[in-house]
Each structure stands twice: as structure tokens, then as C-alpha cells.
Amino acid sequence: MFFVVAVNESFNDYEIAFYQDLASYGKDWNRQIKRLPLVLQSKCKNLKNQNMAKVLILEQSKSMRNILRERLEFEGFATTVAEKGDVSQSVCERRGYDAILAGGDYECVSQLGVPFIIVTNSGSIDGAVMAVKSGAEDYLTAPVDMNRLLGSLRRIVNRDRDQPEEPTAVASRPRRKTQCGSEPIVGSSQAITQVRDLIDKVAKSDARVLIMGENGTGKELVARWLHDKSNRAAGPFVEVNCAAIPSELIESELFGHERGAFTSAIKQRKGKFEQANGGTLFMDEIGDMSLSAQAKVLRALQESKISRVGSDKDVVVDVRVVAATNKDIKAEIAKGNFREDLYHRLSVIVIKVPPLRERAGDISELVHHFISKIAHEHNIGVKSVDNQAMAALSAMPWSGNIRELRNVVERLMILSGESITLQDVEMYCS
Known about the structure:
With 430 residues, the protein is α/β, with parallel strands linked by helices. It has four domains: 48 residues, no CATH class; 117 residues, 3-Layer(aba) Sandwich (Rossmann fold); 163 residues, P-loop containing nucleotide triphosphate hydrolases (Rossmann fold, 3-Layer(aba) Sandwich), CATH 3.40.50.300; 71 residues, Helicase, Ruva Protein, domain 3. Helix content is 40%, strand content 18%. It has 17 helices and 18 strands. Strand 1 and strand 2 form a beta hairpin. Helix 14 packs across helix 16 and helix 15 packs parallel to helix 17. The N and C termini lie far apart (67 Å).
């Protein structure tokens, strides 16, 4: 049975505490929540949504990731997307998945104990046979037959959830589900240690966070850690690059649209706010957003509801917003390019990610981290770095920060000999 035991209502802010008996979950749920205000109804329904089947999409192609994510979320699955190379080495016990979609490289997921489906651009009979022998539930080639994919996923979910569990065996039985966490925040300098400490302090709250830092410093990684360490970790992590979306499309991208709202709107589409319901919305490069879009985002944050383009109905959303920018927002406010009221809404907590030049002591750790990572990705041996080469790397200005450092390490790993020398650095990094 479902009980609302506490309601704390302030201006557009509701907090609830509850208990539930899972045995009577289905029948009593809807009847009980109808007694609550609409905002509370939405929050309670989000709890129910946590029981949605969770699918991890490991795919190198961004376009394929987005296609799979949008279709699965439309069909009622909760999804997490990532490049397979970033996740395969960082599996941990943080968040469980019912199934994994692996983009061709099944070796990184075959040992995780989670049912997986292969989705590849270059299929072959031999490849299909090997995938099945390795434990794949299905083997699909592009263009993906979505009906077949959905059928396979539902078969996996229904099969696993219909299996009765023996209460006496639960504690000793190996966990079927495995969870993937974010890539580590590497470094032991005081500057980056303070960032990690701040993440630990604020992650569990629902406070909005503004991440500030130069391009390439790892703002997205900080956002992912805030999500993974939060109470919303089981919910979706949805990201949107505000600078990459034309101003005339940003409203539709964020808030969705109804069928017929404009010429190309052939069906209803949920925006990023709805996709992130119950989880975290990461708004990257928010300093590049138009003033008109800023006004609509401000309303969404103030009222916890949005309206799709072409609709006169409000949709209640429960989203934690984490924003990031490489701009000096206060300077942009002075220029009239950014709303001061939106800034104050977003900046409950401000995390400043230091540039690499301010944490030069971390470069050695980062270099060795990337060497190990790149060696795995390219299937090549790990290479050592002599002292002179490391000193030269540590003295470079790194205007592109960690992103630039990673690219340089990858270049050196490919072009150098058995080890990375000063000559290699001088030849390939000038």
C-alpha cells in the first residue's frame, strides 16, 4: 500500500516521503496518488518510472546512439548512452541495467553478467555465430530492424522479471546486473581534489549546479559524476549542447513539440526536459543560449513545468538541472547577453574546473591514464615515457586543456617507437 507520510509545500517546491508495499504496488498506486496535488502526482509517478527497464547503449557513433536512445525512450525504456571505449574499462556497482546494446564490440560486455544485444554496421555470418557463442541475445545489423530490437529487449526484460526469486538464496546469488560509472577524475593536485570534494558534498542534494571552466577542462565529466553520485543515479542523464542547436530550434529541442506544430513536426516529440524526468539534465554551453530561450528555461526552473511547442497544456517535470559554460557569465550579464535572474537560478552551487596549466602536477598522472586507455582502444602495447619527455609535456601551455593532452598522447602512442622520448615530443607536438 502507498502512504504519503509527509508533505512540505513551499513556492513551487514539494517534498514527499513515502512507504510502499511492493506486493500491492500496482492496484493501490493510482488510487492513492489521485488524492495528491498535480505536482506531487508527477513526483510519485516518477518513482514508478524507476521500475522501467534500463538499457545501456554502448555505441561509438553519436548519430546511432541518438537514434537508439530516442526510439527506446519513446517505447518506455530508461536509457543511458556512452561510447563503448569509455565505459568498457570502468564498470562498477553503481547502477543496474536490464540489457546492453553493444555497437559491434561485444568483448567489453560479454563478461559483465548483463544480457546484451549486438548492433553493428558490418555484420557477417561468422560474426553472428561468434557473438551468439559469447552470449549475445541477438545480433542486428544496420539499418536496424526496430521491431526486432524491441521484441528482443522485451523478451529479455519479461524473462528476467518473471523469474521467481528464492528469498533464502538472494544474499548468496551473484548479482546479474552490473553498473557503469563515469570515467575517473584523474589527478591529486589540490585544485582537482577540491573539485572532487565539492562534488561529494553537493551530489546528494537536488541543488542546481553551474560548472564553469575553459574548453576541454572536463566540465561534462563533473556533471556525470554529480549525477552518478546523486539520488537520481537510477534516472536518465540527458545532455544538450546549447551552442550546437540553432536558436530557432532550441525551444523544440528543450521542450518538445506536438504533431503539426511546424512543417516537419510529423509526430509528437518529447524535449530534453521530459526525457530527463526523474534524472539530470546537463545543459552544456548555456552561455550561448539566446535570450528568448533563456526566458523559457527560467520559467521551467521556476515552475517545474514546461509546455511543448504547439501545445497549450503544461507538463510537470522533475529534473535536476546542471549547467556548464566556458564564458564569464557576469561579464555576459553586463553586456546584456545573459539574464541575471536565470544566472541566480542556475548558480545555487558553482563548481570551477581549473585549467590544466593550474594543475601541471597532474599531467604525469593524466598521461599514464591516457596511455593505458588508448592502448586498450587501439589494441597496442602500453608504452613508457622517459623523464625528459614527461618534463617537456609538463612544461607545455595546454591551451586546449585535458582534451588537447589526450589528443597529444594518442598521437604519441601511434607514432612513437617502443617508448615515448623527448625526440618524439619535439617532433610530433610542436
